[in-house]
Amino acid sequence: MAVQDMPFMENMVKRIQHARLLLDTSLGHCFMDGLEHRDANALYNCLRAYAAIDNTTNAEEIFRSTVVAPFMQNIIPHGSPGTVGVSSGDELEQDYERIKQHIKDDCKFLLDISSTENSGLHVFSFLANSILKEVLSTIQKGKPGAFSPGRPTEFLKNYKSSLCFLEYLEGYCPSRPAVAKLREEAVYIEFMRQWNTGVYFSLRFQEIAGALDTALMTTTLVPSQKSSNLEYSQSLVLKQSNSLMDCLRSCWRDDVLLLSCSDKFLRLFLQLLSRYSNWLSVGLSVRKAGNASANSGFEWAVSASPDDFLYIIHDLNRLLEEVCGDYLGHVIGLLKSCPPEVLDLVKQSILRGGDSLKVLQPLVINSIVETLVEKSMEDLRQVRGITATFRMTNKPLPVRHSLYVSGVLRPLKVFLEGERAATYLTSELRKELLQGVAFEITRRYYELASDLVSVARKTESSLQKIRLGAQRRAGASSDVSDNNISDTDKICMQLFLDIQEYGRNLASLGVDAATIPLYRSLWQCVAPSDKQNTISF
Fold this sequence. Notes:
23 helices, mainly alpha
């Protein structure tokens, strides 16, 4: 027979259990009496006794049920159909304020006793196992919706209020190790687990990213408000751009941001910029290719005019200033508690996001240039008609430029003199656009003119050979020189007069044609031999 199964051992165990139960009961009565009368000496001795018999749980439970539970029931009623929901809504901020006051009035005296230095009472955790445990239980029963991330705004308020409450509780810890111990308590961990911040962020992501996607689905570029040009020049113009800025700001608003999710909100910020950049760059590509389908979502790019693209350039500059300026400062200020190396990474990430906007401006400028050049080509293509004008017509040498020349730069001039260009074009951007259009039109002009002259000379050479062959067959002398002006000379003279007028028109816009390499090539292609080396209008 085993020792523990012997009758006297069984009797001994029963006596010990009875003695322990009697001790627990008596100690419990004494502890409750001390709590009722706030007898510091009695409470101190009771706690020493609980610590000696390694039964801190009973003391914590008695304190929770006799002191904490009653005022929690009063603050957040629960437990019966007649009391559930007496407290308004699921907001916790005011409840926490009342709880803090009760802790100060009804709990502080015991917390001070248990924190007595060198008392050996550090084994108790009334903050976690009495106060926080009852707070958690009461909220779960009386306001379960307070933990729900399904209402993000209320969830965030309650979450922040809860963090402030935990910070308040930690204020009763006598040392940093005590704070660390409190945070390791099971009930503390369970309390934090109630707040599903991952779901909260997912809902905010859908809300913020969805707002931008909705704005970018618009099929036209529409100003966001009716305003004066002066006000427009100082703020964002397009609805799409305003939506982007609103979404970027939402990521770091006080009523949205969770610092524990700051890395996710930073990633969302970069994704928003990427989404806007992709919308713009793909739209420009679709416009260039000219293959937008009816439901592609990029109809705005195909139908946009050069004036509309001025809105985009303006907004890109404003967005860049905002993101790399005040926006960056605001974010760094919110994360100032982070280590310097983390702040530096955040700063670099935001600046790189700004760079993604900066690289879009040349693409937009190129689109404006291409559009204006194509409009100019409608008149410039009339160069091809010069051959028919002089080929075998016996017309005299031309003395005036062609009518088409005055229309070549008209689209550019109308654009630059427009109201939007006056409002949104900076002097640097105006110069860049002017140079880009002038250089491209001149390149096209040179290609057309050089091809025309080349074909004319080849045709003339072929006709000359035919004429000489006919003279030989007729027995005529082939040594007689034909001093008449050839058709090619007339064509070249007409082109020469035309490019002189073109050069004057460029000069009226502020472009020196002589500085354009292909204009010099064009000049040398058609100018008379005595004027080859001097460009003058």
